[in-house]
Model the fold of this input.
Amino acid sequence: MSRSPSFRPRKPPRERGLGGSRRPQPHFRPRKPPKEPASKPAQPRFHRRRRNAQGRNHEPRPRLRLQATGLVLVALFAVLLLRLWDLQVLNAPKYEKTVAAEQVRTVTIDPVRGDILARNGQILAGNTTTEEITLSRAAAASDPGVISRLATLLSMPVSQIKAAINDSSYSNYRPVPIMQQAPLADVLYIREHALEFPGVKAQLATVRDYPQGDLAAQLVGYLSEISPKQLKALSSQGYQAGDLIGQSGMEAGFQQWLRGVPGSENLEVDAQGNVVGVASKVPAKPGDEVVSTIDLSLQRTLQTDLAAEIHALRGTVPLGQLGVATAPGGAGVVIDPNNGHVLAMASYPSYNPNWWVGGMSYAHYAELTNPSAHDPLLNRAIAGEYTPGSTFKIATATAALDTGLVTPSTIINDPGYFQIPNCNSAAGRCRFHNAGYESLGPINIVTGLAASDDVFFYTLGFRFWINRAKYGETPIQDYAEKYGFGEPTGIDIPGSSIGQVDTPQLRALQHKEDPAAFPDGGWYVGDNLEMAFGQGETLVTPIQLADAYATFANGGTRYAPQLALAAETPSGKVVKVFKPKIEGHVNLPSTTRQTMLAGFEGAVDNPIGTAGYTFAGYPFSKFPIAGKTGTASVKGELPTSLFVAFGPVGAPRYVVAVVISQAGYGATGAAPVARKIFEYLMNHPVPSPKLPLPPPSG
Done:
């Protein structure tokens, strides 16, 4: 059948979505990509906007966008409100403090240091006001020329001023101290030429002062800037770099009482760090006064007599000595045997502690460190170590009587020497002589002590040696320890030495540590003999010597030497009482004590006594004393001279110990000083302190 040319086949109707009149098209209908004829260029593809099942576009409508944006803005506004509420309500005080802290700087106010007083109120260490010249760091930075002008005026190196400015121990918000105790002429010149010295001020400052000069200098001590080691140990107690702290003597021993409590000042500063005002201030609390046991008049007498005797001895040839006395130094101590109170303590040579105030000068430092000065800073009374010689016989005699080695009636013959039985001289020393080669014949322990007979004590040392199975290896050393030899004294200031007592253990240790100096670390009978009369390796300090005889004088109680009675506020309120401290006891039965006492009395008031001629004419009936001389041999030097005594014998109140190195016999070197002290005390008894003395503890 033929068709008309106008006839065209009808295309199937296009399917529409649900909104159309035609039936819906399947959602997933595969579409074949159109095939492009190889010969024809690619035709552009036209993408239609896809619709969802409802026939709507996938892009959100503008209305939804506005709603979302609004919600975000509301949320941000809410967060902002919460933050403002946190800043202005919840944490406002904290942030106010933070802002204030950025505008305020806190600096420390140093307290006024407490005084050190003698037992009756005289000032040993106090404070005084002085003119101090300071320089502002800001002024030095803006006008560096002021440093050179100030250095020229004060006659000091420019480097010294620059070092002070760069010293971090000074606060950035305080003027830097350049000179203390400034001359009045310099102070007036600065005030009259203020424009020439911007940032330089002369103002009053409080500084330490030692009004007694070199009197009791080593006992009182001195101040200087805290060291890094001290700062590390004390930083938890509020110490800061640049603080002054006690370095010796009572200044160091009672630092916690003398220091006081630092204050603080809150300074308002501007953005450049310049101080513009004071926000608040907490005043410093001054330190407490420390009342010492020292009697100032007795101290002056002891120090004067000791120095005079040393000067008198120098260049002389002491009786019976083969050499010239050089007497480079010495020490003296007076203590109360009933409580350990140190009534006077002298060390020679001495120095002036005011040299430390404001910084040590080069001249004074050179004077202190010059070898010919013989170390004035050393407190020989507590740190000088000396061979005790016959003063050590107190320990040997006590050991012999208390253990029963001898009795008061035991007789020992003195032919002038002691010969070690069956001794081979090739192996060592076999014969030991008296110091003067004298012979006393048959004597007991009373005469042995009075005449300081070496042969008698050699014999005691030998008998202890051959009876080691009965008495032990170290009976003499054990009693020496009870008297405090080779032991810490317990004194309340730093720097004291403990000395040493010669023992087999000490010799072995010395050999182990230094075989060249101590080639033989053994202990032999000769060592026991020398130790028994105070030679060998035994070393004691003058304060130990005084304390040992004080222990004997009071019947056997060893007190720690004590330098402080109490601490009190500047207004006089007692805040601390320092009680006597008992360190130990020595067994002294009546028979033992009376026997030894008779020997000590004979040493000074019997013609046979070693110090009999030194005390000739002394009024024993008015003020009886008992004592012991010591002459200690030192290799290559004149002997060390020692003397110690106590009195009045019936009720002892004073013990006097004197030691002078390289001065010869104890009777001719040290004993004359002790006699002068007892004569002084006879007419000037030490008064009771203004504070009541507490009972001893222990």
